[in-house]
Amino acid sequence: MTQGSIDWDKLGFDYIKTDLRYLSYWRDGAWQEGTLTEDNVLHISEGSTALHYGQQCFEGLKAYRCKDGSINLFRPDQNALRMQRSCARLLMPSVPTDVFIEACKKVVQANERFIPPYGSGGSLYLRPFIIGVGDNIGVRTAPEFIFSIFCVPVGPYFKGGLKPHNFVISSYDRAAPNGTGAAKVGGNYAASLMPGMQAKAQSFADCIYLDPQTHSKIEEVGSANFFAITHNDEFVTPKSASVLPGITRLSLIELAQSRLGLKVVEGDVFIDQLDTFKEAGACGTAAVITPIGGIEYNGKLHVFYSQDDVGPITRRLYSELTGIQFGDVEGPAGWVVKV
Ligand code: PLP
Ligand code: COI
Question: Which residues carry this modification: N6-(pyridoxal phosphate)lysine (predicted)?
Fold first, then answer.
């Protein structure tokens, strides 16, 4: 697809080949100088650990076109840090924060024509990843690695953007109690494919996972974190070692406290206590804030604020967050990095 044929207002979350991607190899114990390449196909050994043993991790962040034409990245340092933690968990060499941010900037600059215009609601999604490659057969860390970043112009991940969606509680787990749930690694997503497909076949936006130990507490959506607002205006979000520490979640915790004056509680969200909440949402880079209209559990749909309207606190969090990302609202120091 060429940039000229993109209908910016109708973008979903689908692969579009953009002009250039960043590519860097780790060989002989060091990262080599990264380059930009037109080729979107990787040529790797059939023995690559990424193919057999899931030795890989990835990130997701966005570049936003502002009203004045400038370009914002949102908290890329946090993505760099999380990727370093994922690498540590999977015995992969990590990329220093400054190298990560510079590579993101290069990819955005090289694909500037693919950034959706201000006002369209779209953004340029960046997908950094590290994979174990090179000839190998035993279960061990790879002899070589690739760090790459490509980008895709995207619209809403869940159709319709800021509109309530229904979710269903899954009886499957996406991660084990002391497994890799807190790392952004492909295995967690492979585990979520079948439950996610089953949820969508029943017309739910996606499924929500419970804690893998007791199956009594909400953990997260397969592609986003969970939050809810209590009847006495507390912002509640699950705290668990098997949940991915989302950067949107982290940002909403700060904004709920500092801008909306809400008390924040990071703790247990019991599935049998959903009537404590008046609003609920899924939050993430791709999901932004997706209001949760209802959650189905054991065949019963629990409805929060409304099935077709967005609660006032969710709405305020959304406009604060997206206002900062698109440069319309001043963010806390360091959140926005100009490209
Ligand atoms: N949880 C999962 C499983 C995710 O895939 C994501 C998306 O990255 C999130 C939570 C939210 O994380 P972030 O806000 O950093 O995008
Ligand atoms: C993100 O929001 O960046 C994600 O990784 C979610 C999904 C596309 C896997």
Answer: 184
184 is catalytic: yes
Whole-model pTM over 0.85: yes
Which of 189, 223, 226, 289 to mutate to test ligand 2, by most ligand atoms within 8 A of the CB atom? Answer: 223
pLDDT in tens, 47-62: 999 999 999 999 999 9
List of residues 6+ apart from 248 with CB closer than 8 A: 224, 225, 283, 284, 285, 287, 288, 289, 321
Q: Does the CB atom of residue 196 touch ligand 2 within 6 A?
A: no
Q: Quote the CA–CA distance of 333 and 336 in Å, as a whole number.
A: 8
Residue 31 to residue 218: CA distance in whole angstroms: 39
Say which amino acid occupies 181: G
Which domains occur in the chain, in start order?
A: 3-154 (3.30.470.10), 165-325 (3.20.10.10)
Q: Ligand 1 pocket, 220 CB below 6 A? A: yes
Is the pLDDT assigned to residue 1 strictly greater than 60?
no
Number of neighbours of residue 187 by Cβ within 10 angstroms:
19
Q: Would you give the end-to-end CA distance of the chain in angstroms?
A: 25
Q: Which helix (H) or strand (E) holds 224?
A: strand 224-230
pLDDT of 2 reads 58
Residues 152, 173, 80: CA angle, nearest 5 degrees: 40
